[in-house]
TrEMBL record:
Entry-linked PANTHER family: 1-ACYL-SN-GLYCEROL-3-PHOSPHATE ACYLTRANSFERASE
Positions of the Phospholipid/glycerol acyltransferase domain: 105-222
The keyword Transferase appears for this protein: yes
InterPro entries found in the cross-reference section: Plipid/glycerol_acylTrfase
Pathway noted in the entry: Lipid metabolism
Superkingdom of origin: Bacteria
Organism lineage string: Bacteria, Pseudomonadati, Spirochaetota, Spirochaetia, Leptospirales
Pfam families: Acyltransferase
A single GO molecular function term of this UniProt record: acyltransferase activity
UniProt keyword list: Acyltransferase, Transferase
Protein name: 1-acyl-sn-glycerol-3-phosphate acyltransferase
Provenance organism: Leptospira yasudae
Length: 281
């Protein structure tokens, strides 16, 4: 059976769904780098210029109360365009998994870089309203704060794991019951390698408590590396392919330990295939 390959023009538009047809997205083979990126080919200037240009545009919309779900999807798609115009090659598989269940879901996977927080909404928001679990500091900043607050995220301090767990379970359950899906990265921080011991079960617990499916997602996004001082200002590596894959939904009626093992196995299996270093616990 042939896969339905989404085009850029398809993104952020309603999609007719045939349950039997896999849906994916790939950077077009004839996608050209931007003139600015070719001029400054030895630097990341074109990328960071385009990135902050879009951030300031989104911030202005958020401050005016106009940064809605549709605006978020289009903004995310523009960051995707920027990545591709700076040499990025992206492959996304399993989009049909998001559509295979009705109502809200929890989406959970490894957290490698800033890239996924900007790109994932492109492939999710047009099907389901979505928000993130984020660091509280991101909602307070003058630059990113207005954008993040407009998405009604669940904010955690990451200094007290018990308090964070309670916040995610209580606030997350309320949002899910209201029809809002949630993206969770069950790691303490973004890392370009992966340590299974740091991948906690908070997403599985949230899905079980709210009685909604959990969709695994495996990510390789070190095209955009984390910055040493400001993580959003990391270098880009044009030779590193970007891979995103969604997995089969895990049902809340199944055993939570089994779901956690399945989620972790899905992530580890795919990131290993893509060349990510997985630490031995």
């Amino acid at each position: 059976m042939s896969t339905r390959l989404l085009q850029r023009k398809d993104l952020c538009k309603p999609l007719e769904y045939d349950q039997e047809v896999p849906i994916s997205y790939q950077t077009a083979l004839d996608k050209k780098r931007s003139v600015l990126d070719l001029i400054f080919r030895e630097t990341d200037l074109a990328f960071h210029y385009g990135y902050f240009k879009e951030i300031f545009r989104s911030r202005r919309l958020a401050l005016d109360g106009l940064y809605d779900n549709a605006s978020w999807c289009e903004s995310s798609a523009k960051i995707l365009d920027l990545i591709e115009s700076c040499g990025g090659k992206i492959n996304v598989e399993g989009i049909e998994k998001i559509l295979s269940v009705q109502g809200p879901v929890v989406i959970a996977g490894n957290h490698m870089s800033t890239l996924e927080t900007f790109v994932l909404p492109t492939f999710v928001t047009r099907y389901k309203p979505i928000t993130f679990v984020v660091k509280e500091s991101l909602t307070r900043g003058n630059l990113f704060g207005p954008i993040m607050r407009s998405r009604n995220p669940i904010s955690v301090g990451r200094t007290n794991p018990r308090e964070d767990l309670v916040a995610v379970l209580e606030e997350g359950t309320k949002l899910l019951q209201q029809g809002m899906s949630i993206i969770v990265f069950p790691q303490s921080t973004r890392t370009t390698d992966f340590n299974p011991a740091e991948f906690n079960s908070i997403a599985v617990k949230l899905a079980a408590r709210a009685k909604v499916p959990l969709i695994p997602v495996a990510l390789r996004t070190d095209f955009w590396e984390n910055g040493r001082i400001i993580k959003e200002l990391g270098r880009i590596f044009r030779d590193r392919k970007i891979n995103i894959k969604f997995g089969d939904p895990l049902l809340p009626t199944d055993d939570s330990r089994k779901n956690q093992e399945t989620l972790l196995r899905f992530v580890v299996t795919h990131i290993k295939q893509w060349g990510t270093v997985v630490r031995e616990s």
